[in-house]
Amino acid sequence: MSLLRLRDIHLAFGGPELLSGANLNLEKGERVCLVGRNGTGKSTLLKIVSGLIKPDDGSIEMSTGTRIAWLEQEVPRGTTGSVYDVVASGLGKVGQLIQQYHHLTEEMANGSESAFSRLESVQKALEAEDGWALQQRVDTTLSKLSLDGEAPFEAQSGGVKRRVLLARALVQEPDILLLDEPTNHLDIESIAWLEEFLLNYKNCVLFITHDRAFLSKLATRIVDLDRGQLTSWPGNYNTYLQRKAEALEAEAAEWERFDKKLAQEEVWIRQGIKARRTRNEGRVRALQAMRKERAQRRERQGTLNATIQQAEVSGKKVIEAKHISVSFAGRPIIQDFSTLILREDRIGIIGPNGVGKSTLIQTLLGKLKPDIGTVELGTNVEIAYFDQLRAQLDEELSVRENVGQGSDTITVNGQNKHIMGYLQDFLFSPERAHTPVRALSGGERNRLLLAKLFTQPSNLLVLDEPTNDLDIETLELLEELVDQYQGTILLVSHDRAFLNNIVTSTIVFEGDGRLAEYVGGYDDWLRQRPQEKSSQSERKAPETKPVTTEKLKNKPANKLSYKDQRELESLPLTIEKLEQDLEAAQQNLADPALYQAAPEKIAEVKQAAEKLELELETAFERWEQLESLKNNN
Fold this sequence. Notes:
Blueprint lengths: L3 E8 L7 E8 L4 E5 L6 H9 L6 E6 L5 E4 L11 H6 L3 H18 L4 H15 L3 H13 L13 H13 L5 E5 L7 H12 L4 E5 L3 H7 L2 E6 L2 E6 L2 H36 L8 H15 L21 E12 L2 E12 L3 E5 L6 H8 L7 E6 L5 E4 L12 H6 L4 E4 L2 E4 H7 L4 H4 L8 H12 L6 E5 L7 H12 L4 E5 L3 H7 L2 E5 L5 E5 L2 H7 L2 H9 L9 H6 L7 H29 L8 H34 L1
Parallel strand pairs: 3-7, 3-8, 5-6, 6-7, 12-18, 12-19, 14-17, 17-18
Antiparallel strand pairs: 1-2, 1-4, 8-9, 10-11, 10-13, 15-16, 19-20
Helix pairs in contact: 3-4, 9-10, 21-22
């Protein structure tokens, strides 16, 4: 039996139904990605599954004892206390007792005598609730997710906060884990860690994401929410895109046939009904039914239809930085970095949250003066700058006022266009165009900032996290638009697919203010970066405690043992066999016949391929490590 089944779910909030007869099954071990345009009801569906919202109609069937936990899209306001407190709060009343016990034992360890009497009553309450096993679960979860329980939650980075909230969900040992945009505002290292964690998670995951690399690696099935209907698409993301496009083409053709027939019937009614009134009442009723069906048709939401205005070409040299250094409060942000950016270069900037990516951009654009070194902009450089903080938007003004600046027309590539028509190209209806910015969603704000940005001609486009809060379809249209841009591009992004598809080189923060440049996009950087960095950021969550000097002293010397030598000799054959097995698995996944099989068969083949990919990558890393030791001998 399914863990959970939604049958004929209906829900509306005063307008068209968000869910109109929606059906969904969730099985153990699945990782289901829910996709759809912004505002179509994806987060609402998660709230229905979690029990936070009741549908207007329909039924929800759940296996007895099924536990559900939800990781929300945003960090809830007012979440305070230590990391331990926040994680334990996922266990409700028992969690409060565990928190008390934890704090009292800490007080006793610090010499508090009054804590002893209070501890006794808490112990009795825990025993009555069978809480000792749950306390162990909290400790184990903190350890698995590399979290420091004593650290204050409020002081953590956005990525660590998300990991703490994930731990709070996991201590409940949910049968169904709900994740709403789990990669939002995470850096690449945190996203890679989350991917590996979820790949090894045994229970069901239902998640929403705009990160195509994350989706492609994790999803065993894709469920599409379109105009209130849920459609399940087995297979990978590329298969979904192909089949969805085919379905939309078939729908458009069917609608075209229907509309043509309706038009013919309307003509017949006007010309022939008077002469044949009594004999054609059935045809009249059929026409009325067609009119009603046409009126109830739900069109798909429009797509972004934008143009980036091009300024005259800049000089060949766009930016030259020589030996620049920047520090804040004694902490090095950039150390002795030099670069030359030429016309039509497309440069991605990669690094953890808070490392200084925006500071680098500000310095390269001349908005921030370096402590040491020089920055020189080339001739005729016209900059369009997308600010991730959206500081260019006035919260109190409307959408129209922010873009039009008091004018009713916009000039786009030398042609005047009415402001309302221009905003509709960015999916703002006339009603939404008069809405204050403070009332917009994150995705709407990003689209508004793009609309404002693209009113100004440029030959240097600077994009600082442009993909946050955009749905996948809008993101892909933006990607296509940026790809057609004829000028120079500086791009800060944690979206690996976006980086791969846009940039031709990367500037990477490698720690302690050191920056390095690599040819190619994100995947190219992975292949080129130092091996120790690769293993650390790809496999492990960030360490919460430093390695001690004593541990370093006891670390064995780098030397190739006899056992290592034998392993090194056998690895090429192992790698060759894994490559052959992986190729066979990928051919199986590409076979259309597979997708006629049961869902569990598709998931089994996909998981086997993912396991082979991981084994092959691990074998390559081990071979490189042993080769390095051999060369050092």
